[in-house]
Amino acid sequence: MTAAVESYEVTGRKSKILSRSQIRKARISGIALFLMAAVIMLVFVPAVSGVSTFGISTVTDFIQLSPISVPSAGSLWILAGVLAFLGTSQFMRGFQTKTTIFLGIGFFVFVLAMMVWASSGQQFSLVSMLTATVARSTPIALGALSGILCERSGVVNIGIEGMLLGGAFTGVVMGSLLGGWIGLVAATLTGGILALLLAVLSVNFRVDQIIIGVVINILVLGLTSFLTSQLLLKNPSLNDAPIFPSIKIPVLGDIPIIGPMFFNQTVIVYGMFLLVGLTTFFLFRTRWGLRTRSVGENPKAADSLGISVAKVRYLAVVYGGMVGGFAGAWFTLGTVGRFDEGMTGGRGFIGLAAMIFGGWNPIGAFLASLVFGFSDSLQQKFAVLETPIPTEFLAMAPYLVTIIVVAGLVGRARPPAADGQPFEKQ
Amino acid sequence: MDLELRGIRKEFPGVLANDDVSLVARSGKVLALIGENGAGKSTLMNVLSGLYRPDAGEILLDGVPQNFHDPGAAIAAGIGMVHQHFMLVQIFSVADNVVLGVEPTTVGGVMDRKRARAEVREISQRYGLAVDPDAIIEELPVGIQQRVEIIKILLRGAKVIVFDEPTAVLTPQEVEEFFGIVAELKSNGAAIIFITHKLKEALAIADDITVLRSGKVVGHADPATATPEELASLMVGRDIDLSVDKAPAKPGATVLELSEVTVTDDYGRKLLDSVSMTVAGGEIVGIAGIQGNGQTELVQAITGLLPVETGKVLFQGRDVTKLNPRKLHQAGIAHVPEDRNHMGMVGSFSLSENLILDSYYSDQFSKGLQLNRGAIQESALALVQAYDVRPPNIDNTGDALSGGNAQKMIVAREFSRDVPLVICAQPTRGIDVGSIEYIHEQIVLKRDEGKAILIVSTELDEIFSLADRILVMFDGEIVAERLTSETTPTEIGLFMAGNRS
Ligand SMILES: Nc1ncnc2c1ncn2[C@@H]1O[C@H](COP(=O)(O)OP(=O)(O)OP(=O)(O)O)[C@@H](O)[C@H]1O
Ligand SMILES: [Mg+2]
Known about the structure:
The structure holds two protein chains of two kinds. Chain A is mainly α. Helix content of chain A is 69%, strand content 4%. Chain A contains 17 helices and five strands. Chain A has helices at 2-11, 20-47, 72-92, 99-118, 126-152, 160-178, 180-204, 209-232, 258-262, 267-285, 287-297, 299-304, 309-336, 347-357, 362-385, 391-395, 397-409; strands spanning 51-55, 68-71, 123-125, 247-248, 264-265. Chain A starts with a helix and ends in a 17-residue tail after the last helix. Chain B contains 17 helices and 22 strands. The longest helix of chain B is centred in the middle third of the chain and has 16 residues, at 172-187. Adenosine-5'-triphosphate is lined by residues 12, 15, 17, 35, 37-43, 84, 390-391, 400-405 of chain B.
């Protein structure tokens, strides 16, 4: 791909010819942009009056910034204008290869308009929503990281949901008994043990990896539901774990907006930052990472160089599973301190979507999970603001965003070449 | 280092791939290993490089018995192999591929990429193997990828170097360069094993020739005295006629006509630039050209795999420019694709399934929703026997076939159809001389039945022995057209290099 682009630049023939699919894509995104502009003008504008107020600092902040107020109707007209302009330019000449990016900008503008509309005549705390965004994207980012570790070594892991749920459960039980830190370790180990099952069955017995993943999900869902009714309901003290407090990092935590978002969170959120950074480093800068990726791309080649495909896959999968179990602790030890049946609500699968959207790259996946976390915390905020949208519909937002992103925006991302393929030595 | 193999035996389920094979390769010499498709050459070399465990036999280096329980052990002992299908990670850089498994690191396993690059540069300078350490493999032409494979084994200090059909995918220039590299390695004292189907190559660079047939060593030849005909009959076990006998063509009505066909890529560059040509019934038209000059796109445009930007494709007088591949196929175009593993077959399907990939829906093979197993088996058996696909077990999967036998199976499927136009891209790539003889005969037979035949080949020898008329492609254009009887390989070679007529 890049070779083609380069030689194109070398010859300097700047051609205006677009391929058919590019033209069609530009048309469709143009229509989408116009539709969004129309919704703003026809639905939002008639419904607003007065000003929309956005709070950009919380009461505990060291530096207090006064809230920003904007006239609701006026800002909506401006935002609709921006969308209409983007839509027109798509039809005029398109943004060629950048169509997707501009569509993303269009969505962002539309979300801004929704926020103006929802907060018309009220105060909308932007900071607390953004802080919740980072918190809520944590299990998704960690789930994605778990998937990346497995798939980069060539093992498809769709059992992340089960690993999250398992981690959440053992986390709360061990946390109730022996304290939060032990709970966190127990959650991590649970994920590791489930991953070991995936590794044994896929590497040694070459069972279909999708099936193993489904089995892990169902197994954990059934087991935790059973234990909840048999154990936790009868012994409520086992379902009452301490919650990790938010820890404010000195100085950094006092920066307006950024401070509360990134530097006043729980250890699990910090753990996520650390794991994203470390895993990126491991995968792309170390010998272990090079071998892991080579096994995910071309296990035969790795084998012919004396690298043990099985060993590499075991390591990556178990590491990935531990990350997934750690993520599970967020649901219990990181938020409410108690376990409910099926409380992970498909976050593991959204994590898979973030993995794909982020191009199997930890940092990309983290950014993608922010998008999902944002939609999650936005819907919560809207529910509180009592917008006319029914809360049941609002609760669909993260899943809707997942579908739109995976179906519409994911274009060129390429999975590891040997993803999901068992390797057999002669 | 001298290598000796003694009594190697390797059995796959139902196939005895190597049966008591012994051979010797000496330091500073080139041993050519030749044999039919499926003779067991690749298997033997995979045993040597520790990828397969032999069922019996010994590997000796300088007289010392070795036990390679895995490829790492073979590498450590000084064995290096350039596989028939390259063992490279497509998305990695050259340097990362070269050092994989022997990575230079600083503290705690952190890659030392600077040293990796330096190591690649050092070897590429010492042996004259120019390559950019930071280039990404998938963006490199095959010839350069092969260099990366060679650098890889040199870095590991290989003293015994195996090349499995290295020249099959190279352009004539690249083959010349490759021979230069082999000479260099030889003068450095390496023992070289060179597998090839091109007997002229074996005679040109080998110091000794060992012939394998059905898993056994059937003879040795001295390149100084042997002739290609002798080698061929040693390989196949009968006399082989390396030239193609055919009567002059009697071209009939035009079957395929392209007028000003242009194909562009996503960036607006022309892959095919206003190509016009015809193929008539009863003639063989050969497309000559160095790989990558639009031949692939030409075939894909005709078979509906690439959309035609401007221009027309006429088949039997009918405009078929916009038809999809299945419609074109049904209209009567048979196609032997150049990339057999990806386009020609489904590796995990059995031979009988692969043989009906294009006609499973026909009345012959299906009744309503059901496949007619009996008819499928019967036709598969007949084809496998007629085209000598080995082993002739129609329940084996496509993956278990050796390279050349997979090609034979695809040719069998396409040639079994009674259609007016047959397109063959690289019909005999990786095929042994015995099978080439058979496939060439079939092609001429098809022509004599009055079919139109279009052959694309990078082998000038093949073009000259088959084609009645030759078109030369360069940079997406047809730059020359000659009747075979009125031209010479030298003239065509000049056109291939970009000279205009
Ligand atoms: N993985 C495998 N499983 C089963 N049979 C195999 C396997 N690999 C090779 N064979 C069989 O072993 C025999 C030897 O195959 P091999 O690939 O060594 O042939 P070759 O001499 O390299 O042929 P070619 O010139 O076509 O590459 C063939 O009959 C082939 O079908
Ligand atoms: Mg072979």
